[in-house]
Amino acid sequence: DAKTTQPTSMDCAEGRAANLPCNHSTISGNEYVYWYRQIHSQGPQYIIHGLKNNETNEMASLIITEDRKSSTLILPHATLRDTAVYYCIVRDDKIIFGKGTRLHILP
Amino acid sequence: GAGVSQTPSNKVTEKGKYVELRCDPISGHTALYWYRQSLGQGPEFLIYFQGTGAADDSGLPNDRFFAVRPEGSVSTLKIQRTERGDSAVYLCASRRTGGTGELFFGEGSRLTVL
Questions:
Q1: pLDDT grade, residue A68 (50/70/90)?
Q2: Which helix (H) or strand (E) holds B55?
Q3: Which of A52, B14, B50, B77 has the fewest CB atoms within 10 Å around its CB?
Q4: Which one of B57, B60, B105 makes the best mutation probe of the A interface by having the most chain A beta carbons within 10 Å?
């Protein structure tokens, strides 16, 4: 079973920041948090990952709480092309996906 | 190409038939994963390989499903006596040892069992 829980769906206005939460209360000390997204009819695409510190790349930012039991993926300026299902994964070797959050960007 | 390649992209077969799905990972990637995805669901883990050996096949639903990776690169997922419930998109992904650990996915093989 997936070690994470995410809201089923979220809406965000175009141009605003999209904040996608993820709970992973059973995470182990050496497990990374990974985020992927899947646009309709495509394979999942890697976004970002982190262990303890907050991370930022050209796609997004990842904020991990100090106790590491939850994290938030931030898309700073959402566009219509960010409409997708976003998966938060606590990575062990098997890499188990949950159901993800379906993000709708509203024009 | 530089990405993960899966063939066929679409396969329609009849119940009871045998099917093979092929995955050609990114060159040099030692780990290879197979997932199955039904409509509205997240990818469901089936099996992953580290080199030639199956490191974890706990996701294979039953003994009709089998996967091989004889030379540590291309992998084939084999489904015997297909059932209508096997209809799904079968996704393959690969990753290299070390680095960011990210998975690179193919576009999937859509299997329809009539």
A1: very high
A2: strand B53-56
A3: B14
A4: B105
